[in-house]
Design brief:
It is a single chain. With 129 residues, this protein is mostly beta strands. It is built from no helices and 11 strands. A hairpin with a 6-residue loop joins strand 5 and strand 6.
Length: 129
């Protein structure tokens, strides 16, 4: 049974930092590009960042570029999202996703939510002003 489990969310003040982790099991983790998505109440889900299966290529939404950093450790079946200089606008449920078999992450291309193979249940990030 495949599981993708996020952790690391919480409440932080504006300007603070959090590191999200996402661990996969039941799948060959290194075969998948991995992504982070978020959804705030009343808003559509948006892609935040992704990383290729090798970790060489990454992509970021314009709203987080320069503040967030995605990385992965395939030996630990884990992908991370380091979030710095957090703003109230970053408040959302953050979801980890294993990308589709034929999808990819590189430069301006974020993995597509419609092709995601496996979703996590999410971890809440709240940034207070």
């Amino acid at each position: 049974q495949v599981q993708v489990v996020e952790s690391g969310g919480g409440l932080v003040q504006t300007g603070g930092s959090l590191r999200l982790s996402c661990t996969g099991s039941g799948l060959t983790f290194a075969d998948y590009p991995m992504g982070w998505f978020r959804q705030a109440p009343g808003k559509e889900r948006e892609g935040v960042s992704c990383i290729s299966w090798s970790g060489v290529s990454t992509s970021y939404a314009a709203s987080v570029k320069g503040r967030f950093t995605v990385s992965r450790d395939n030996a630990k079946n884990t992908v991370y999202l380091q979030m710095n200089s957090l703003e109230p606008e970053d408040t959302a449920m953050y979801y980890c996703a294993a990308g589709g078999q034929y999808d990819y992450c590189s430069g301006d291309h974020m993995i597509s939510p419609s092709l995601v193979g496996y979703w996590g249940h999410g971890t809440q990030v709240t940034v207070s002003s």
